[in-house]
Design goal:
Distance between the termini: 37 Å
Oligomer: single chain
Structural class: mainly alpha
Radius of gyration: 22 Å
Largest sheet: none
Order of helices and strands: HHHHHHHHHHHHHHHH
Shape: globular
Helix content: over 70%
Number of helices: 16
Number of domains: 3
Strand content: under 5%
Length: 320
């Protein structure tokens, strides 16, 4: 049996996905999850046959997975079966985010995923450990397990971007005092050799911690002092971002654009990355931006169109 031409197939499957999208947008009561899942499985089969020759088809796969997630949220399938599918897709190397399926998975589905992922990490299946670690973090975040997520992040090798994520997680949970204390303890450069000495110096170092937190828009205990410092540090460049712009806002916008899985959105996301790079330079955290880009590229490594737009924006990508 002849193998379908990838260009012709991409156009046909695109029409199918457009139909599913229109039905979902219209609020159709039909159960569209089986059709969306068949589209995902069919595209995967084509990619296995054509590989790197079907870059546009990889974009269709991302769209199909996103539509399947929407269809599952509208008419949730059996939680255990969906959990198994998400795990199988993730361990197969597909770009599947647990958060996209969290509503359909519910507590039962997320619990099943956590049990399986924890077992993979317990027995240390070498070929699955890296993916399992990512899934463990995503499951904790989707489940709203703040303490569990913080523990997972804290166990990672010390990096500025990881520490900032812990701060954001605590802040999002309304635990602002913990977020400020953690940032002051971890993000402030330490000259002492022990945590006890660092904690003893915390009051003296608090202004520096607050300066770092301004980039994250965390609540400051002395807003008038922060405002005064901002005026002193305000750059003279006309093209500088507005003072209300912040690193978390740009990161959130970038993720929203990438989730659209459209070429125009990828292009805008790349431009947002350039603005984010400027913000990090102004905050003195250029190394954090490098780590953020590395993580972004790793998560979305199958999105060839996105990577092309990032390169076109003259943003250095990490070496393989």
């Amino acid at each position: 049996m002849s193998v379908p031409d990838p260009v012709e197939y991409t156009a046909k499957i695109g029409a199918v996905l457009d139909t599913v999208r229109r039905l979902l947008d219209s609020g159709s009561r039909a159960d569209l999850a089986p059709l969306a899942r068949r589209a995902v499985d069919d595209i995967v089969g084509m990619l296995e046959q054509h590989g790197d020759l079907a870059a546009d088809l990889e974009e269709r796969l991302d769209q199909a997975v996103a539509l399947y997630a929407r269809a599952c949220a509208a008419r949730p399938p059996e939680a255990g079966q969906l959990a198994d599918w998400v795990l199988e897709a993730a361990f197969s190397g597909r770009a599947v985010a647990v958060a996209d399926f969290a509503a359909a998975l519910g507590e039962a589905g997320l619990a099943r995923m956590k049990s399986i992922v924890d077992e993979v990490l317990r027995v240390k299946q070498s070929e699955k450990v890296e993916i399992a670690q990512r899934l463990q973090e995503e499951i904790a975040e989707a489940s709203g397990d703040v303490d569990g997520l913080v523990a997972i992040l804290a166990a990672k090798p010390p990096r500025v971007d990881v520490s900032l994520k812990i701060v954001r997680v605590l802040r999002a949970a309304g635990r602002h005092s913990e977020a400020i204390a953690y940032a002051a303890r971890v993000l402030t450069p330490q000259r002492a050799g022990t945590r006890r000495l660092a904690e003893a110096r915390l009051p003296a170092e608090k202004p520096r911690a607050e300066a770092r937190l301004r980039a994250e828009k965390l609540p400051a205990e002395k807003p008038q002092q922060a405002e005064k410092t901002q005026r002193k540090e305000a750059p003279q460049q006309a093209a500088a971002p507005q003072k209300e712009d912040s690193i978390p806002e740009y990161r959130e916008r970038i993720e929203q654009l990438i989730a659209q899985k459209e070429a125009a959105a990828y292009r805008e996301a790349a431009q947002c990355l350039k603005k984010l790079r400027t913000l990090h330079k102004q905050a003195g955290t250029a190394e954090e931006f490098t780590g953020y880009v590395a993580e972004l590229v790793n998560v979305h490594r199958r999105k060839t169109r996105l990577l092309a737009e990032i390169r076109a924006a003259r943003i250095a990508l990490p070496k393989s």
